[in-house]
Design goal:
This protein has about 120 residues and is of the alpha+beta class. The protein is about 35% helix and about 25% strand. It is built from 4 helices and 8 strands. α2 crosses α4 and α3 packs across α4 (about 80-95). The longest helix has 17 residues, at about 80-95. The chain is globular and about 35 Å long.
C-alpha cells in the first residue's frame, strides 16, 4: 500500500516549518521572502505584512478596524488605506498568476479563504 496516498492531505494553508504555505504560495516570514511556482514574488513591505496577517488567520473574517490595529503602525493609517493596500496585494498576486485568496465580506471586512 502506498502510504503517501493513504495519508490525509494537509490543510490548504499550513505551516511547513517556519514557512507558511497555501496553494503553491510559500511565505518565509524570517527571510521576508515569497515564492510561487519556484519563482520569487516581490512584495512591498505593507503587502507582505497584510499577506502574513491573513495567512496566520485563515478562514477568519478580519474587520478593517482589526487590520488597522494590527498593521496600522499605531493608528497611522485608516480603513480606506487598508482597502488600498489589499487592492495592491491582489494586483501583485494577479501579476504573478496567483489566484486571489482574499475574499471581501461586504460591510464586515476580509477573509483569507483556504477552501478549494
Amino acid at each position: 500500500e502506498d502510504l503517501a496516498r493513504s495519508r490525509p492531505s494537509a490543510p490548504p494553508a499550513r505551516r511547513a516549518g517556519h514557512m507558511l504555505v497555501h496553494r503553491g504560495l510559500e511565505v518565509d516570514p524570517a527571510a521576508f521572502m515569497v515564492r510561487h511556482a519556484d519563482r520569487a514574488v516581490r512584495l512591498r513591505r505593507n503587502e507582505f505584512d497584510i499577506l502574513m496577517h491573513f495567512m496566520r488567520r485563515p478562514n477568519q473574517v478580519l474587520s478593517r478596524a482589526a487590520l488597522v490595529d494590527e498593521i496600522g503602525k499605531g493608528g497611522m493609517i485608516g480603513e480606506r488605506t487598508v482597502d488600498r493596500r489589499i487592492a495592491r496585494l491582489r494586483k501583485t498576486l494577479g501579476d504573478h498568476a496567483i489566484e486571489d485568496p482574499i475574499r471581501t465580506v461586504y460591510g464586515v471586512g476580509y477573509v483569507f479563504d483556504t477552501a478549494e
